[in-house]
Automatic annotation (TrEMBL):
One example GO MF annotation: carboxypeptidase activity
Name used for this protein in its record: D-alanyl-D-alanine carboxypeptidase
Regions that span the bilayer: none
Top-rank lineage group of the source organism: Bacteria
Length: 394
């Protein structure tokens, strides 16, 4: 299954302690932070605290992140900030309008296209994977619906992949296909009966990407471009396919491995594909979020699915003890969080090696936040939470 397509030697590394500040930090520019504007309309949201927001992104680069970009917008006030460096070797301020890998924020785009196709009568939420994509899943698997893929209650597993950093580095230029991922899925048993629990996995959205292609007869990326990117004028949002580069101005991404920062700016994103390959900017993601929340992309009944959690479904935790169950946190395409102070926000986080992204807003869009962090570890950066709390719960 894991046939090597291309393998390159480890890129030149910046040798520093993973928990220490790079030497280039001595010359790093101070965080650039705007003043916070006042609300332009009545709001129950807390006033923006520009000083707290600026503190939340200061001190970069450090052992966990090399840069940050933050955009806060809405009637409840606006603020913009950036910090860190574009390159830990040479320093330099992060470019305004820098592009970055958005990871699983890609899932919101993919889910939106699927729901559009539902609205056009080309896909049924209660239709099954077995109906639309016969033979994709093992015959031993139970029926899995499109709705269950969208809200991560399918029970489908992930492939079993090596988890060590060196494997990632050795194979970061490999080219994957969706079928290769699904061949790995088929080797594992279902995690739970579909519809009974929720487990957030790339597998669900990879199947949705394959569904888009089956129904439209076009690459999923063409559908996203035609239905979202071009109509909304997202000029700096791209779907890289097999291109390992980030086009246009950007900060480099790094992965901390055994006390060394490895430049992983160039890396194939064919493994996450429809679940996590896209590139964008804070301005483009803000524009997308506004259009989506305001119903420009989906009819109201379908859009409601993106703001509604499945009822009575706990998160999958691998055990049968209900006493430690946590409630579902994912809708059909997004996630929901209620922050200290009672503010509920909707959106998505995403991460790829070197980059971590967050895109969140209140349902009425009076406050919305887009964050990009040059995280040196895979997974959502802790700074996303820090910035989010500063923006929504001041």
């Amino acid at each position: 299954m894991f046939t090597k397509v291309v393998t390159l030697a480890l890129a030149a590394a910046v040798t520093i302690p993973a928990v220490a500040v790079p030497a280039a930090a001595a010359a790093a520019p101070a965080a650039r932070c705007s003043a916070a504007t006042r609300p332009s309309a009545p709001t129950s949201l807390p006033a923006l605290d520009a000083a707290a927001l600026c503190r939340s992104i200061s001190g970069l680069p450090n052992g966990q992140a090399t840069y940050s970009l933050v955009r806060v917008r809405g009637e409840a006030g606006s603020w913009t900030g950036s910090s860190g460096v574009r390159d830990v070797r040479t320093g330099g301020r992060v470019p305004d309008g820098a592009r970055f890998r958005i990871g699983s924020v890609t899932k919101v785009f993919t889910a939106t296209v699927v729901l559009q196709l539902v609205g056009e009568g080309k896909i049924d939420l209660d239709g099954t994977v077995q109906h639309y994509l016969p033979g994709l899943l093992p015959a031993s698997y139970p029926s899995v619906t499109v709705a269950q893929l969208l809200n991560h209650t399918s029970g489908l597993p992930s492939p079993t992949l090596p988890g060590d950093d060196q494997w990632i580095l050795d194979h970061r230029f490999d080219t994957w296909t969706p079928q290769r991922w699904m061949d790995g899925v088929a080797k594992n048993a279902m995690e739970f009966t579909p519809g009974t629990k929720q487990h957030y996995l790339n597998t669900n959205t990879i199947v949705l990407g394959m569904l888009i292609e089956k129904v439209t007869g076009r690459p999923y990326g063409d559908a996203v471009r035609a239905r979202i990117i071009r109509p909304l004028g997202l000029r700096h949002t791209t779907i890289p396919g097999e291109d390992v580069r980030i086009p246009g101005p950007h900060a480099k991404g790094y992965m901390a491995v055994d006390g060394t920062l490895v430049d992983v700016t160039e890396m194939s994103q064919t493994m996450p594909w429809a679940a996590g390959e896209m590139i964008s900017t804070t301005a483009d993601l803000d524009r997308f979020m506004v259009a989506l929340f305001r119903g420009r992309l989906l009819k109201p009944a379908l859009l409601d699915n993106m703001f509604t959690l499945p009822k009575g479904v706990p998160m999958y935790d691998g055990n049968d003890d209900p006493s430690d169950d946590q409630p579902a946190a994912y809708t059909m395409g997004m996630s929901v969080m209620t922050l200290p102070g009672g503010v509920t926000i909707y959106g998505k986080t995403g991460s790829r090696y070197g980059y971590s992204t967050g895109m969140f807003a209140t349902r009425d869009l009076k406050r919305r936040v887009v964050v990009s962090v040059g995280s040196t570890t895979k997974g959502d950066s802790a700074m996303l939470q820090t910035v989010g709390l500063a923006a929504f719960a001041s």
